Amino acid sequence: MGPEFGRLAYVRHIITYSLSPFEQRPFAKYFSVGLPNLWRRFRGQVLRVGPLFMAGYALYLWAIEEEQRLKRKNPADYVNDE
Amino acid sequence: HPIIKLINRSLIDLPTPSNISAWWNFGSLLGLTLLIQILTGFFLMMHFSSSDTLAFSSVSYTSREVWFGWLIRNLHTNGASLFFMFIFLHIGRGLYYTSYLHESTWNIGVIMLLLLMATAFMGYVLPWGQMSFWGATVITNLLSATPYVGSTVVPWIWGGPSVDNATLTRFTALHFLLPFALLASLITHLIFLHERGSFNPLGISPNADKIPFHPYFTMKDALGAALAASSLLILALYLPALLGDPENFTPANSMITPTHIKPEWYFLFAYAILRSIPNKLGGVLAMFSSILVLFLMPALHTAKQQPMSMRPMSQLLFWALTLDFLLLTWIGGQPVNPPYILIGQTASLFYFIIILILMPMAGLLENKMVEPTYVTPK
Predict the structure, then answer these.
(1) What pLDDT, in 10s, does the model give residues B283-337?
(2) Cα–Cα distance between B63 and B43 in angstroms, integer?
(3) A1 near B CB under 8 A
(4) Distances in Å between the alpha carbon of B225 and those of B222, B257, B266, B350?
């Protein structure tokens, strides 16, 4: 059922080397490289996500105030009532 | 041994792309949540009475007198919310990384979404609170908009002239049955998925760099499960009624209509789309179309690059769609007053415009943008 190990892909003339996981530090450079990389990935996406959600939030805040305003009577209309 | 071979090929030696991100955790989380719902639901069903005179008090008895009944109930109600949160994120992953190009897997997934929605809708009716009764009344009444057969079908579904005991008993039976249909669909979904293997965020064939599912993704999924279990427990233990409606603490009364009838949060987007069209049949068609449009996703795909990882215009539209979905969810919970009416109608329109027109157009434009400039050979 589906591709199995041994018949996934034929890759010729590529030699790979790797270290045993028992010969390396498990969280090497987790903060020193990881945090700058997180910042890089954030910068790459923030302008596509941020402005839209800020606009959406502004719309949400405006709509709540507008609904409250529309439910209220205008006091100026009743200024000269006895 | 055939069963061990099956488990081995699906969960242990399954070749998996090395670069699948956290967005790929939601599949296993959904399976886990289904298991939690079946288990907690089974224990709740042991004490539940599906008669309209006994349902509410049997749920109350389960919460108060049954050993850890309160916890089982809280896990079940909040588990349903978690189920929908995960499925929305799972579908979002499918849209962003164009997983819908695995058509069979995708179509079964959409069927599973429909089954889940039906199960959750009927499950909410069972406690027979005010919102259970009136939510069932509103939504089942919508089917009367169906031309010719509508007015006959609705009493047939109700089992009488209105939502009553007969409706509750059949919803109980269906609510017990459908999760097993969901389980069968899940197995079929996985069979089709494993035919081709998982996709990956880069959008190129991962076959040259695959790693076994165990231990890498069993461990990663275990981490995801631990985080999911923590959120479920935080909800169930600290904030059990956060996502619920206070009206459902009142027993159902057909003579008293709640001021604001609305479904649970996960249906609010569909409720907003339903209410945005002044015509009853139009609203019903728009509401169903908002889910059924997912079946069209493979046909609407125009980009040559598969996922959106390197397609900024499509990314922008994806996030616009996400924002639109959130706005619709918010609007669905609000009363039908200005300015919510106009926002709801605009958001409903944009939902369909983004999916049916803008995203395909963006794909075509992005194809043009990556075409190499022709260089005249010397």
Answers:
(1) 999 999 999 999 999 999 998 888 888 899 999 999 999 999 999 999 999 999 9
(2) 12
(3) yes
(4) 5, 40, 21, 35
Q: How confident is the model at residue A52 (pLDDT cuts 50, 70, 90)?
A: very high
ipTM, 2 dp: 0.88
Which residues touch B278 (CB under 8 Å, ≥6 apart)? none
Residue among B15, B312, B330 minimizing CB distance to A3: B15
Across residues B276-289, what is the average pLDDT? 95
What amino acid positions of B are annotated as catalytic residues?
194, 198, 220-221, 264
Question: Which of A4, A11, A67 is nearest residue B15 as measured by Cβ atoms?
Answer: A4
State the pTM of this model: 0.94
Q: Flag whether A7 is in a domain.
A: no
SS3 B129: strand
Q: In chain B, pLDDT over 90 holds for what percent of residues?
A: 90
Residues B262-370, CATH architecture? Orthogonal Bundle (1.10)
Indicate the fold that domain B17-256 takes in CATH: Cytochrome Bc1 Complex; Chain C (1.20.810)
Closest CA to A3 of B210, B57, B231: B210
